[in-house]
Amino acid sequence: MENNTSSDDVGSLGENDADLNNENMEHQMAMEVSSHFNNSGNLLPSHQEASENIEPFIGMEFESEEAAKESYMSYASRIGFSVRISKSRRSRNDESIIMRRFVCSKEGFHTKRGNYEDGKKKRKRATIREGCNAMIEVIQKYYGRWVVTKLVKEHNHVVAAPTRVRYIAPEEYAGMEPFVGMEFSSHEAAQMFYYAYASRVGFDVRIRLSRRSTRDESFVMRRFVCTKEGFAPLEENFDDIKKKRNRTPTREGCKAMFEVIRKDSDRWIVSKLITDHTHDLVVAPAKVHYIQSQSEVVVLAKSCAVNCEKSGATSISKTQFGDTFGSFDVLSSNDQGSRKDTRDTCQNAFGFEDTQFLLESFKKMQVESAAFFYAVQLDQNNCPTNVFWADAKAKMAYYYFGDAVKIDTSYKKNKNMMPFVMFTGVNHHFQSVAFGCALLTDETEASFIWLFENWLIAMCGRPPISLITDHHETMTTAISRVLPDVRHRLSRCHILSKCRERLSNLYFMRGSLENNFEMDFSNCIDESETIEVFDLQWRSILDKYGLGENSWLQFLHHMRHKWVPLYHKDTFTADISLTEKPESLSMFFEKYFTRKTSLQVFIAILDQAMAVWYEREALEDFASSCTRPTLRTPSSILKQASEIYTRVVFDVFQNEFEESLGYFTDKIEDVGVISKYNVTKSEDPRTYVVTHDSSNKRTNCSCCKFERSGILCRHILRVFLTTDVRVLPEQYILKRWTKEAKNGFVLDECVRYNDLACHVIRYAKEGSSSPTTFNIAKQALQMAFAEVLAAKKDIARRCPM
């Protein structure tokens, strides 16, 4: 028994609402991009699904290599470039392909060829390759899925959305006409063939009908039709005064169609076919070129960039930073007029006077404090585009509390805000602390790489344990390159705020407790204790609210390991989320840091804000050292904690201790010195497993609160009471939460590190200027490094710790 799902397109846009899986839907959106343009080549208003096309990202998963290829070429057709396969790798076991690399067709360079033997010169051909580095690489993992492991999205040439996309079939189908009984290896291959055939003949295609198997939900039938199939519904006037604008009818009852079904051998066969159309076809292209490389070019996009090159005009496109949650804002500028001088060019970034003030302020700060660090990224006119700085207090704060870092990019929510970025964390009072600031006007991947590299230098080369950001594709890629070992996760608050925007109709829907989407969604995210439970509840929500085909939720599920707490509950984050509400910087930034604010005023306000932070921290330090908290329960563990922890942290610990008194323990395993307990509460159905090792006093809990926050959970504390542990083991007291958190730091270490880093950068530039200098520099560096290691050993021998 099989399940039928029918859909139809809407209006003149040819939007497809067929039953598609996630990867297939991306491809279908790209296939119909040509019908989203009017006759003049201008983009027509798109529907909601079309605006939610998922951009590629590292970690993205696909069911097959074909699905990965289809998705990337869909993305290429939307952006405006062509794709080819550059590299493959096969398994040594069965010779199957386990890696594919897809690149821009302008990747690499053509080899130069000399004269022929008869002295005649070869006719110069138009240069196709320009050394573009854009690429995506997918690898098949052991569990069968294909995962994106490498991604470069930046192009070194102009790209633009295509005015029309032509799909060129693989050469085995070149010029073939469809016929009943024709076989394909997959429904994606059949789809690609029919779209290529339609492009060659001169009509557009959409998916009209799909059927899935009731056994495994896989496709068993796909029907493709002409976009002029059917008839558009008649539309009534809005009222007697205002009439709806008459639109040109796009449907003419065309019967042309192409249906494929899956046979038992997993081959797809054309079962129904109508090739006659009831309307005139667009003039087919005079000639189709099949370009050969290591593989075939499947999508060729004829974009306005080609026309610009032919006319001799230079078009510079700057893609302003965006993310999958929103659209990309593309700013284009023509450089045909006279060149502006350096002063005018700088005015576009910060303003000439503001730039001078900023640089002079930084130089002054560095003279006053050798620990002050700043870096400026220059454009081609030697004008600042991005700036980063960190003072001595930021470095000291990072030394104490830099294990968990959050990057605040509140300005992305408001186009009128100054592009201000701040690296923040929490101190031992759960107060926000700053680890450096930046102004970003150029938000490419290269700029974010530059930012993270300089921030790492300023922080003495010590990466954090975890890094929390909002979701931005370019930033994510830069983090994976500069900080590959850091546990990067996405802000849960940011994700939920986007959910509230995207699913507002469900969030504000009035209903009973049994039909409360917000409650169900929150419980699924926050209360799931295992991956199996999370997946079960997620599918239950999709079924309950009819969201199985919602592309936004499909995208979130693909990224679940980045933002769902369950997937990173063992990662230390210092519970930064606790400070997001009371100390959010968004309102402060929106009020003071607008694009109209001069840099002089901006720096003054920022200094005042930081002074307030430092004063607040100093007051809390004084209060923690001079006062003693009230013990609500007599306990030796609480007394010990009150003497060690700061007041705020002790309040959190004391709350956990009190909550532990309401739990029960049940020993479920006892093997030598290792015991396991089920810890439960009568009104709570959840069970937590605590493992206690009496020999080394090691205890861990399945909730992983200590691993995440550095503060013991109520479940472990309950087991401590059961096993008569009266003193907190030393390994469960993190110094960063104690009154002594800021003892033992030597600022000179950072000063020395920064000084050496500057010399190393200059050394590398000079040493890499030629092969000869490179060899000399490398030998000298190896000798110097050996001397440094010998000196460290000698110091350790003479002055043992």
From TrEMBL:
Protein localization: Nucleus
A Pfam family matched in the record: SWIM
GO molecular function: zinc ion binding
Record bears the keyword Zinc-finger: yes
Gene Ontology CC: one annotated term: nucleus
Record's keyword terms, sorted: Metal-binding, Nucleus, Zinc, Zinc-finger
Job of this protein: Putative transcription activator involved in regulating light control of development.
Listed name of the protein: Protein FAR1-RELATED SEQUENCE
Gene: FRS5
